[in-house]
Amino acid sequence: MATTKAILRPLIFALALTMLVALAHGSFYVHRRNVFKHCMAVIKKHPPQRHTPSNKCTGVVLKSNLVGICSILTLEDEQKISVERLVSLGRRFGQVFTPGARCGTAYIIPELPGPPLL
């Protein structure tokens, strides 16, 4: 009986951890779908695009994790959207992207310009 409990506890812990990781990873897909749906006019690859996001897009970006979306972008996504515009949109609303990190399959996030030299 004691060995059964000793085996079951790590298995239950592993299952719970796996479910949490799956839920967290799955939420990036939900965020991506919502951002693409409501912000496509701003982030689409080919002009003309809007420079000012709609109120609905703004709300979605504020609730979404665009940094997380970077980790799940596919080549197919990158044919539809400009990853540079996606990063710019996220930065506009306070999301922090690590300079030098990858967003999507190939885009390297640039550093933000520093303060002007005096």
Automatic annotation (TrEMBL):
> Which lineage ranks, top first, belong to the organism behind this chain?
Eukaryota, Viridiplantae, Streptophyta, Embryophyta, Tracheophyta
State the protein's name: Bifunctional inhibitor/plant lipid transfer protein/seed storage helical domain-containing protein
> Taxonomically, which superkingdom?
Eukaryota
Give UniProt keywords alphabetically: Signal
Q: Quick one: signal sequence residues? A: 1-26
